[in-house]
């Protein structure tokens, strides 16, 4: 009998994308027996429930077009309120879900209005709901109260502002709200629901972050996150009677989330340590730190900016967090707070190669034009010879490239393509000074950071300088377009996913609630027209020589489709190599699994075509 030898085959692309993603909601049920989460198990981001010990998840919504974004749990009877929007248009509506009846009821139907709820949206007696909406004036995000029995609503704060509703005081008479002025300036107001007064309790002259957190069980005050007098956000407690706050924790890294059990016993917070998010627990009755959670290193993923919060059961016995790592798709992890014992209660991987078959990320840094060291995650294949590299640029820009599982990265690595994923100036996680460097400077210092990233790559003996690609979405898409127009000689291939091409038209077309922030964020389209024209990729479109793939969502409210239309039309008129793919039922990101798979596969094939030698 002849011997048949099985040839070694590289894993197909479909294996790397064979996992389930999570959305931006996470909570415990009222009785603490289950964890609520949002996942695309069904192909769309729906709400699910799983026992705290793990097991088969139960689907609570069955949307096919809508994406569940947030969820709140009533402390009275466990009723849920969630937000969802169709086809990624970000006009989130409110839905009420009685777990006993098992079907969501839509309670708002204002198609041009955005609605947001936080985890503390229900009043302590469960009769009222606090939420944010731009229901009166398109440019104003206001705080509203809804009577859940009568359906009556009333605005209580936020006229002329971008206001966000946070937690109720334990006696139900007051409500915390945040006034979001820009990415570096947030202040706290304390709304008296009986008198209507809403004084600013964190007044400040210089920009600063003051973000409200949970109330103490006795109502004496609440926790907050702030960068006052510091580079990084610390954790503090605000004493209402004393009208002041005192620091609780001031690590050399941002405190990114804080949660408190309803009984006031267990305090939990996440600290950003070089991109890894570390969970800390404290027993407030004893004042002692609790056992370190037995969690893998990781960070929380996001869905179009929605990152799942930290969740504590009412009695503080369990804490939940969604974590991912470079070689590990995201999972819901539940930790017993007393013992620190942790386990994953979901199994998102259904085809992704095992961890030992994937490659880890290495934290590196390279020097830029002003002497700053720019942090980046380097993914390098174990292959001899000079390798192609993709420069990956995250969105935001005031966000961070975390060490997460990226199917595109791992697929390209399996084909011998390295990834350099940068956290250029403007990224969060490296102090407020670093973050603010990109404000009103898109296409300025950031461009020089990308230039120096490529120069650093050219100095590496393992890099093939003729096979460098660039990839990014949102602001990262703007970065791609800036690179191929203003640094045109570097690139062998490029992928732009819903990136602004003209900063003037971009700034004019953003969602109405963003308009007051655009002058500080990017620039005013009228007053700063000369600056925005000078920094727009479209201004330098004649320089493009790189094969470019452009991907766009037709319903995108943040970077509208004409941003890509005008770019592609101009490139085609000049005879440049460009492929344009529009998803008619997507917005700023991918909410339907089949669309996400197609977009990532197109990106992988495009980069592989031009970077991998045949």
Question: Please, could you describe this protein's structure?
Answer:
By secondary structure, this protein is of the alpha+beta class. It is 15% helix and 34% strand. It contains ten helices and 35 strands. Strands 28-29-31-30-32-33-34-35 form an eight-stranded mixed β-sheet, sandwiched between helices. A four-stranded antiparallel β-sheet has the order 1-2-3-4, with no helix packed on it. The protein has a four-stranded antiparallel β-sheet with strand order 5-6-7-8, with no helix packed on it. A hairpin with an 8-residue loop joins strand 10 and strand 11. The longest helix has 19 residues, at 593-611. The protein is globular and about 65 Å long. Residues 1-7 have low confidence and may be disordered.
3D shape: globular
What is the count of DSSP helices, taking H or I runs of 4+ residues?
10
Give the biggest beta sheet: 8 strands, mixed
Helix proportion = 10-25%
Q: Unreliable runs, pLDDT <50, ≥5 residues?
A: 1-7
User: Mean pLDDT score, rounded?
Assistant: 96
Structural class: alpha+beta
Quaternary structure type: single chain
What is the number of E strands? 35
Please report the distance between the alpha carbons of the first and last residues: 36 Å
- Which percent band covers the strand fraction? 25-35%
Rg measurement, Å: 24 Å
